[in-house]
Please model this.
Amino acid sequence: MPSKIDMAKFAKFCKDTGFIFQSSEIYGGINGFWDYGPLGVELKKNIKDAWWQDMVRNPPPGPDGQEIRMVGLDCAIIMNPQVWVASGHVGGFADPMVACKAEGCKKLSRADQQWVVMYQDLTKRKAIPKERNEAMSEVMAAITSPISAEDRSEAINAIVTEAKMMFEEAAPTFTKTITASSAQEAEELGALNKHERKLFPNLFLAGAMALLEFVKYFPVDAKCPACGEKQLTEPRAFNLMFESHAGPIASDENKVYLRPETAQGIFVNYRNVLNSTRLKLPFGIAQVGKAFRNEINPRNFTFRSREFEQMEIEFFCHPNESMKWYEYWRDLRKKWYSTLGIQSSNLVPREQGKEELAHYSIGTTDIEYMFPFSEEPQELEGVAHRGAFDLTAHANKSGKVDDLAYFDEELWNNDSQTMSTRSFKEWLKSSPTEEQIAKYKFTPHVIEPSAGADRFTLAVLTEAYTEEELVDGKGQKDTRIVMKFHPRLAPIKAAIFPLVNKDGMPELATKLYRSLKPLFNVFYDDKGAVGRRYRRQDEIGTPFCITIDGDTAKDGTVTIRERDSMQQRRVPMDEVKTAIVNALLS
Ligand code: GAP
Model:
């Protein structure tokens, strides 16, 4: 793996083995929600623990060999709604939707998908004159090839003009004109709709968003994709945040949101962390936790869910050092996946082009993975240089400007020794320039490596899944399914087998099991032939099987069988622990 696989078959495998279940399955499930079974919960926990250990407690030294200072947070999922106004999520985290008015349907669908359907439909019906269609294709081609920002703006304007003419000719009910699709506006919309931009995988984001603007004025004679009726409403903004109400009254004043990312909890606690830890720049704050997005089109198993977990770091640094830290985190994060068994060839870091960047971002690299359900690599994690965007937005909205700035006390104490005053406040009265002030007091820049725990779990599962053709001792062909997890991530680290349930073997096996249980997740199995027991453990990715046999009582040795090579060796029973530890550290 990951060569192409049948995801339905894979999902069934995950269900049968206890990795992932459809949420509330007995009631027909619910789209975009998943439950982790007995093995899945261990796997995902190991992933989150590995991230916390390697990024928060023990990150490698920084670009100049310095120790990295990191602390963690665990914030509430529901926060003051002003947080989401300041972050831009309330205003912009939205997609245009159409609703079906047909009795018994009432399904929502995305307006831009409607546009695609209609465009294809009109092309098929030859309702679009050939030369218009060709012109449109040319514009499409122009915005899909790498071009300068000016050329792209021109292309966007051209596509809007083309599209307008095309639909005026093709659809007689089209009366309205396109009023809002300047390149800048399209770009801003694009940034806010980053999550769904893959709908147009080869299209420049801004171009796609210009199209998206266009559909707002589209005549609603498209068919509902669910029931086929032509009873769709005008497109309306649809916010991706789940809403609820805090308190007994469901009124607008009580409206709250389930967080769509963990990041904002970190930004609004920036001052609390600084005050309680007395950290100095540069430092990072990390959080692992649930995020919720009312995705319009959850798909590809758990890849795009409505409830998922993120593992996010906001790394605060001096603006002059931000590019150095951006490069550090980008390289470190890609390497981390490889250390956990993901082949480098399946990982694709993709630096976003300038024109793709969100409005606040100076640079973003998506770490993408070749999931077996897709021809194109898909995002596992985004490493974004967010500049001072978030702290500034919260400073402006909350009015706590001082709280969200950083004062370099050490530098001031040093420099002020030769100044007329040691008081920064006094010094400000001498009207220093903005540049002089910014030397001591400034808004830090932020580098944000933002990873998805569920997406990485899915990547680990698909990468580990292996079907092997074997030939047994009698020359018979056989297939074994083996999950080749890195030992650190494997849900169960070792299985302990008494060869037979007699001759003191169960007692010795139980003794070994009990000595390992406080240290690792181990499993005791005394049912069936040993060969079958091996297969059961291979299928769930247990790196070691340890068998206690007739010789164990005589010489104190056991057989260790290694999952991937299937090789067996005899070791003293008290070396089993070291063998497991060595594998975990590999
Ligand atoms: N704070 C930045 C942020 O949230 P993002 O690219 O929207 O950035 C970061 O999300 C990561 O969260 C993604 O790279 C992905 O791994 C994960 N993620 C986002 N939406 C998801 C979804 N609907 N289902 C599963 N994982 C998702």
